[in-house]
Amino acid sequence: MKHNLLTSVLLCGALLTACAQQKEVDAYQAIVAQDGSGDYTNVQAAIDAAPDSCLQPWRIFVKNGSYEEQVIVPQSKPYIHLIGQDKDSTVIHMRLNVGGKPEKPEDDPAGYWACSVHNPDAKTYQHEGSVVLVKGDHFYSENISYINDYGTEAYNGPQALAMKIQGDCAAFYNCNFRSFQDTWMTSTQDEHRLYVKDCYIEGAVDYFYGGGDALLENCTLHNVRDASVIVAPCHTSPRFGYVFLNCIIDGNAEAAKGNVKLGRPWHNSPRAVYLHTTMRIPIAEEGWTNMGAIPALFAEYDSRDAEGNVLDLSHRKTEYEGRGDNPAKGSCPATVSAEDAKRYTYENIIMADDGWNPRAYMTEPSK
Q: How far apart are CA 5 and CA 132, in angstroms?
């Protein structure tokens, strides 16, 4: 009798588990699996099969696997949602860069030309210059690693993007982004919005750059070189620019030498603000550096060290100058007030006037 009861309980448990798994599968319009157990074996095929002009999410589940491919989301395909099974085990990656042909072999010690998109003999010839390019609006992704293998293997330039966003209203949750130079380029349209939550971004040279209003919340910015530079924005007149809220700045032993910069102004009148940042590695005392433009605002509020001590920001850079024989000069504040810091909220930056709410898509990853 006890044996029969135990068997029944186990059967019921297995049935409930199977039903739950089937319900989860049914929540997606397509499944990608390298082993052939899904609808497609690569991510691009699933995106190509998605309908154009969607007005609601087209959810694609990507099972654990190493997907070596370039992924392009066309402008005609808004609302593509890529959901990975596990952020460390669901990996979209490729080895490519945009370097020009070296004049001499010794000019290419890292071997970048072999995977340059400009090399007619490379398998990456005439590819887009990023592992992933998102042109469609309302793109969303969670639980996926996006990696440019050239950047993570060579630890050298030239530009090697893992992610490039051109559409509006993109959002990412619990994802990894890894390269070396220019890991992630955001949309250069000031009115475009980007929300990034609980993500890990790795690089060394201007590895988060571009424009738009971008809110990064609870993210880790991991530096992999001495004198790394995190952001290089090019805003003209955004509402907020780049906002890092409750983020962590970390790095390897080289990055911990105290020379990392928070950012530099690429073009126009860029804006970047770090609020309630925990700096696990020491940052250069001046915080910021020149590049060619005069920032409208490069500032911090309530920056703290690894032990939680409030950092002294009195030596942060406030004077900037451009390029050329007679460079333009200008200044901007290096801090914002407590009152001004209150403006930088999810509701103001992301939801704005139309109520866009990507947090509604986000689900806690399974343990």
A: 52
